[in-house]
Amino acid sequence: MPPQKGHDTPPPPNWPEGVIYLIKPRLSPLFPPKLIPLLSPNSKTFNPKAIKHPSSVQIKRIETEGHPAKGQNGLFAKSKIKGGEMIIPYLGVLHSTLIPDDLDENEIEILRQKDPHSSSDYDLSLLRISSSDIRNPFPGKHVSIGIDAAKMGNAARFVNDYRGLPIQNGNTGPNAEFRMGQGEDGGLRMEIWSLKGGVGKGEEIRVSYGKGWWGARRGC
């Protein structure tokens, strides 16, 4: 079966229409070439290796009463996942924001609002570098690099926050977390790792999105 239009390869079961399935992260067309060495320190080009869909996870529609995401999809353990294991990398569109030092708070907010990724519920911060960092190729500007899986990504985009979720094996907290990592090629990426207790077969993989994520959506 050939890949569907736009997909890197045929997506896993229960993949939604309208979202492109990735096995490699993609750069935004506006991503500055000067920032690529920050993503790929061992190479001057951006050419990450393909990542297969892990056999230990599956995308499932949530039908549990009281679940905040009922009627939507979640990421579940297809088999038991031990504690301290890398479950899946988080793939999406890599994009950047450059904020000059001399802007005031209002000007910074206006600049952020112009960013098409700023309102995405699937956008994660990957790297932030101050204007004075010796690695920064844009002196006088703060650099932020994010990963947005709203329109294209992999199964990691379906992981839900633990808040408000039903009790799972006596646990109401997260059983996984986001961690900065490196691919086999040494490239920088975000990953989802299981916590100490692991994830039981059939359990939903749940993380903490962080207070910043919730605060932005509550207008705090």
Automatic annotation (TrEMBL):
- UniProt-listed Pfam families: SET
Q: Which domain of life is it from?
A: Eukaryota
What the entry lists under InterPro entries is as follows: SET_dom, SET_dom_sf
**What range(s) does the SET domain occupy?**
55-210
Protein name, please? SET domain-containing protein
Q: Which organism is it from?
A: Kwoniella bestiolae CBS 10118
